[in-house]
Automatic annotation (TrEMBL):
TM spans (from-to): none
E.C. numbers: 2.7.6.5
Species whose genome carries this gene: Brachybacterium fresconis
Chain residue ranges for the region called Disordered: 1-33
Lineage: Bacteria, Bacillati, Actinomycetota, Actinomycetes, Micrococcales
Name under which the protein is recorded: GTP pyrophosphokinase
Length: 250
């Protein structure tokens, strides 16, 4: 078994033991089997509904980003958006994070403390485009920005850089409106390259990277930041930043 397999087996084991604990709790002497079955069905339904709402939240945000992207590509002949990727957190990863962060294992309590169940990642070529796109989204009246974490202005100690927004989007359902938080990660290609490599290494070494690898990554983070600064200087040759004081031409 290699490291990846054993990390996966470890998570699966933790999820199964959680389910077992829940089953044991429900099947204590005196528990009515019909009541037990009804409770298990209810848990399953709650999880299915939760995942559906968050997928709709992703769809809403992704539509907004795609509209901006197409407008730029078709009308302005320049798009600050290079790639868009979305993901709905897997049940396994959600349960693992819910356990890791501590607290009640009820759906409302998990929703309260895990804010990245729905995620959209936007990759740009240039740092100024990251902030430009974030401002465009911030100005949309139906998107409420709940939190902003600027790891570009203040990188994490190991070198991670990105702009994170938790935005809340309304999802209009048949009988009610669900306000769904979506984690938006905005970053440059260089930041994305670094983060995806660091993520793969952290996963392989279960977040305990050997010191030489950590040092190599720290250095790579500095090179990536330097590349972003150099590319930013070239950006003005491609397209000047719009003047926020001047209204756009229709
Ligand atoms: N590769 C990589 N990704 C990171 C790092 N730090 C944050 N991220 C990504 O950004 C997400 C949110 O990170 P934070 O803003 O630190 O969020 P948090 O709620 O304080 O902490 P998390 O428990 O990591 O979600 C993570 O789930 C990762 O996808 C990092 O050092 N390396
Ligand atoms: N906001 C996001 N948008 C798009 N992809 C994301 C987002 N957040 C994480 N991902 C990607 O989804 C994959 C699965 O991530 P997963 O949800 O298991 O963990 P994580 O969010 O990176 O970490 P953690 O569970 O510790 O918060 C990874 O490749 C990760 O880079």
């Amino acid at each position: 078994m290699d490291d990846d397999d054993s990390a996966q087996a470890d998570t699966s084991q933790r999820v199964s033991s959680l389910v077992r604990a829940r089953q044991e709790e429900l099947s204590r002497p005196g528990t009515d089997p019909e009541q037990l079955a009804a409770q298990m069905k209810q848990v399953h339904e709650e999880f299915t509904r939760l995942r559906m709402y968050y997928q709709f939240g992703i769809d809403e945000v992704q539509t907004k980003v795609n509209i901006l992207r197409q407008e730029f590509e078709q009308i302005h002949e320049y798009s600050p958006i290079e790639h868009v990727r979305s993901r709905l957190k897997s049940t396994e990863s959600l349960v693992e994070k819910a356990v890791r962060t501590g607290g009640d294992m009820t759906i409302p309590a998990i929703r309260e403390r895990v804010h990245d169940i729905a995620g959209v990642r936007i990759t740009c070529s240039f740092v100024s485009d990251v902030y430009w796109i974030a401002d465009m989204l911030r100005r949309q009246p139906d998107l409420e920005v709940l939190t902003t974490k600027d790891y570009i202005a203040s990188p994490k100690p190991h070198g991670y850089r990105s702009l994170h927004l938790i935005v809340q989007v309304p999802v209009f359902l048949s009988e009610h409106t669900e306000h769904v938080p979506v984690e938006l990660q905005l970053r440059t290609i260089a930041m994305d390259f670094w983060a995806s490599t660091e993520h793969k290494l952290s996963y392989k070494y279960r977040r305990n990277l050997p010191a030489p690898l950590r040092a190599e990554l720290d250095d790579a983070a500095r090179v990536a930041a330097d590349l972003d600064a150099r590319m930013e200087r070239l950006r003005s040759e491609i397209r000047p930043m719009p003047d926020p004081e001047r209204p756009a031409r229709s």
